[in-house]
Amino acid sequence: MRAGRPRWASSSSTSRFRPTRASCGSPRCSTSRISSPPSTSDHRGRLEQQMTTTRQPGLVSVARHAGVSVGTVSNTINRPHLVAAETKARVRASIAALGYVPNRAAAALRRGSNPIIGLVIPDVMNAFYAAIVDAVVEAADRHRYAVSLCVSHDDPDRERRHFELLAEQRAAGALVVPVDADRSRLAQLRAFGTRLVLVDRRAEEAEGCSVAVDDVLGGYLAVSHLLQGQGNGVTIVNGHPAIPQCHDRREGARDALVEAGRNPDSLIEFVVATMNFAAGVEVARRIVAQDAPRRIFCINDQLALGVIEGLTAQGLRVPEDASVIGYGDLGLGASSRLSTVGQPKHEMGDEAVRKLLDELMDGESHVHTATVFPPHLIVRGTSSHAHDLTVA
Amino acid sequence: MRAGRPRWASSSSTSRFRPTRASCGSPRCSTSRISSPPSTSDHRGRLEQQMTTTRQPGLVSVARHAGVSVGTVSNTINRPHLVAAETKARVRASIAALGYVPNRAAAALRRGSNPIIGLVIPDVMNAFYAAIVDAVVEAADRHRYAVSLCVSHDDPDRERRHFELLAEQRAAGALVVPVDADRSRLAQLRAFGTRLVLVDRRAEEAEGCSVAVDDVLGGYLAVSHLLQGQGNGVTIVNGHPAIPQCHDRREGARDALVEAGRNPDSLIEFVVATMNFAAGVEVARRIVAQDAPRRIFCINDQLALGVIEGLTAQGLRVPEDASVIGYGDLGLGASSRLSTVGQPKHEMGDEAVRKLLDELMDGESHVHTATVFPPHLIVRGTSSHAHDLTVA
DNA sequence: TTGTAGGCGTTATCAC
DNA sequence: GTGATAACGCCTACAA
């Protein structure tokens, strides 16, 4: 089917233009008109409300068709156990025959709540959050909930706007990675009856359920692993310590040193502004120049890959001359040679949905819980068959 | 605030357990009870429908409070130009005073359509689709539409289930990367009145709008770039040619050879089953063993990074001894040294939303269009300040 | 086990 | 410009 598509060569003019962020009206991209829709038999003037054509069939149509009452049809759909088998069958047949599609908006209006789960994350391009989105969407689908996604980009306004949307939809609940520590917006949403589960953050006081990961333990695992190799001292390449993750992972690193009988202050720290590949390359230069320890814990994988690149460019061999460990298992998936600390992302998303649904179902008897998942060490590149290792 | 969190050391037992995919009931992750919610003042027995507490204020409450009719309140919200300035102000004050939140479910019921855009993609973890999600969510937010996300994982059932959901919600429209070539499901959804825009696929016949990227051009750009370097012949590391992207990019590669006055059949092809890092490493071995051309076009970035790794492991230097180019710009973001072909992902998502909204607004007069975006070459690693280059 | 009827909160069409 | 009022399609006591 795609064989019939026009070859680029046949319209080489398109290759002249590079898309910009401007509007697409300009000839920068080839836009072809497709036969204008021949007013597909659906020319209903907006004035004639009463059409002879059978509009979207509702419960009533189904009821008539099956020779039962609307209540029975509703019951067959929502509480099948209350309906006699034979009636049920007849109703179902009618539903299929008429192509009836229930109207959730009407149900939501009546019930006062909508089977929609809001999901607010800071960034979809980030593999960590993407994994959570994946898990949440899957779990929600299993329970026939819709997922209304919001990407906050750390903008409180966006977050608030999505909260309003959820409130207007009378969404059943929301899973949110809050933008900042200001919980007043969250409280506001909750006050409106929307159940909330915090993700990647601890819920405080008795405000609700939460799902998080133990970054202190993660830092500990990473540095404990480094300490098993040869060398002396440990270097940490960190982001700004005001970021909770950075703070916590460093704490864990210090714990590992303490456990090994060393002074936690012996940890040599390099702080970078942006935690990416380029910064890693740059830090590698400083590490070599200052002759810092060659057992290096990087706060994330991109930084780690950058450091390796930088070390290699300076003639050092990894892992012979230096040990590097990353964090997050987000770089190239399981394909690179980098050891790292993995986080149970899918489980987190899963558990968040579970908590929310539990709160929705149990209602009064629900007890808020805070689950903290332990990360795990992933050791790679030691043998030709790199594999995941779990360290107790 | 996070200072108060328990240190891992204080409950070292958690570090003993590694989460499995099983249920969270087991002691594998530390779950702490948070003070049980003291039945937050909200103990309304399900029998007493009539509560004395002012339920959620509706249009009527606002109307009463402002001393106007419901119609006027509705108008102040939806068609402010029809309302006198002074009345408008009074109504708005009442809305704020009562904390009124409009009920979208009711509006949707009445209007027959819901301001929700469905988005169906095969995979959120894939950076290409993640970028599209990001763009779509942002554009939808600008217009106050909600985005209902579905990740199909190439499963037609999931796709169908989400289509049903959208139909039940009376969603305004949907953006979809279809699972397969079978367009009957799409037709079904469309028949229900949901507007559809195809993403990363060409719409056929007059079925609707679509947004895609020109992979033939992308392959051409990549190989043209390789041909500018020294060496003779070109190697392509490809996925299965039944995948449209793989097929098209190879076509473009052949076009480039033709343009350079070479025989397109001189292209040496290695086909891999899974297009990841490990496969790249393996292919590199075969390339060296068979002495295939050292100008290598890889169908994606992961493969390319694997090939570089494999070549390096065999003692070759890149780019001195071999030129490698990837595709997609998805590897490490803009941070690696790999040249590649970039796709205007954000523009695609943006344009898809624009087409959908246009169809929604214009109604009858809407004309379906198919937009094909040109990819662009990204050359990296040539200087110490790697930067993006656009080639005309 | 099934039928009946009232109302959920909005929108839109009228008169005024 | 504003006020009444009739749907929209479904759920759920309650009656039969």
TrEMBL record, chains A, B:
<feature type="region of interest" description="Disordered">
    <location>
        <begin position="1"/>
        <end position="56"/>
    </location>
</feature>
<dbReference type="Pfam" id="PF00356">
    <property type="entry name" value="LacI"/>
</dbReference>
<keyword id="KW-0238">DNA-binding</keyword>
<protein>
    <submittedName>
        <fullName>Substrate-binding domain-containing protein</fullName>
    </submittedName>
</protein>
<feature type="compositionally biased region" description="Low complexity">
    <location>
        <begin position="1"/>
        <end position="40"/>
    </location>
</feature>
<keyword id="KW-0804">Transcription</keyword>
<dbReference type="InterPro" id="IPR000843">
    <property type="entry name" value="HTH_LacI"/>
</dbReference>
<dbReference type="InterPro" id="IPR028082">
    <property type="entry name" value="Peripla_BP_I"/>
</dbReference>
<dbReference type="GO" id="GO:0000976">
    <property type="term" value="F:transcription cis-regulatory region binding"/>
</dbReference>
<dbReference type="InterPro" id="IPR010982">
    <property type="entry name" value="Lambda_DNA-bd_dom_sf"/>
</dbReference>
<keyword id="KW-0805">Transcription regulation</keyword>
<dbReference type="InterPro" id="IPR046335">
    <property type="entry name" value="LacI/GalR-like_sensor"/>
</dbReference>
<feature type="domain" description="HTH lacI-type">
    <location>
        <begin position="57"/>
        <end position="111"/>
    </location>
</feature>
<dbReference type="GO" id="GO:0003700">
    <property type="term" value="F:DNA-binding transcription factor activity"/>
</dbReference>
<dbReference type="Pfam" id="PF13377">
    <property type="entry name" value="Peripla_BP_3"/>
</dbReference>
